């Protein structure tokens, strides 16, 4: 097996991931510029809309890690509370040339992990109690390496911003529906609101279109970023087989987790290493993750390549 230095030299920059992140953000920006034009035409009150959007973006950007931890009921733990977990993160962060992220544990019995934060210096890696109980230490290390790869690739920040666009579109659909129903949009372009219904319908349909486009763009990026993080984890640990074993175990356990427990955490699927869903449900999700079979096949190919170094 190649040395750590040799493996890391192989990693380099994932050009395809960078290109995909740029394209997704560019397309989302273009979609939202078009949406703003529709809102302007319909006479929406831009001051109110801008203040709300800016506040939401600020919260999403600066507090995304806290929101994610709160959603999972996760708590940051000290090296004294979780010495083995911290030791793994310490070692892997050094190999990946990253600042050590904060470490958190969620009491959820669903075996999973995620990384969040606006940049490598303000990031956190969280694992669930279910994952710690079901995986062996080398498998836990592989999962942690996967999450650190997300931080190193900076796709966590891009997903945070991309998700913000979808959240705003969803909120606008509700706000415009109720605002239009009870008194219009509050804008000054009254001539376009006379008769009301046409402008309301136009903006509402535009909001739906923006949400749908955002939904599919985010999922396209999310699926590829999982491949990139799998590759990064294999290179950091030098053992693709450990990540393969972890993915198989986590995926297999999902089928035995009660539906209620899965529903409680499904809002975090985009951040999880494996989506919280039973195997038979995955085809119905327009999934945030590639199939387990495709991920394992890529890891097998990478394993053969690494053995040849």
From TrEMBL:
Cofactors demanded by this protein: Zn(2+)
Matching InterPro entries: HtpX_protease (IPR050083), Pept_M48_protease_HtpX (IPR022919), Peptidase_M48 (IPR001915)
Keyword Cell division part of the UniProt annotation: no
Cofactor note: Binds 1 zinc ion per subunit.
UniProt keywords, alphabetically: Cell membrane, Hydrolase, Membrane, Metal-binding, Metalloprotease, Protease, Transmembrane, Transmembrane helix, Zinc
Source species, domain of life: Bacteria
Location of this chain's protein in the cell: Cell membrane
GO cellular component, one term: plasma membrane
One GO MF term: metalloendopeptidase activity
Listed Gene3D superfamilies: Metalloproteases ('zincins'), catalytic domain
GO biological process terms held by the UniProt record: proteolysis
Binding-site list for Zn(2+): 146, 150, 226
Pfam families: Peptidase_M48
Membrane topology, record value: Multi-pass membrane protein
This enzyme's EC code(s): 3.4.24.-
Main location: membrane
Record-annotated active site: 147
Transmembrane intervals: 21-40, 46-63, 156-177, 197-218
Domain Peptidase M48, chain residue ranges per copy: 79-301
NCBIfam families in alphabetical order: PRK02391.1 (NF002669)
PANTHER family on file: PROTEASE HTPX, PROTEASE HTPX HOMOLOG
Family to which this protein belongs: Belongs to the peptidase M48B family.
Protein's UniProt name: Protease HtpX homolog
Gene that this polypeptide is encoded by: htpX
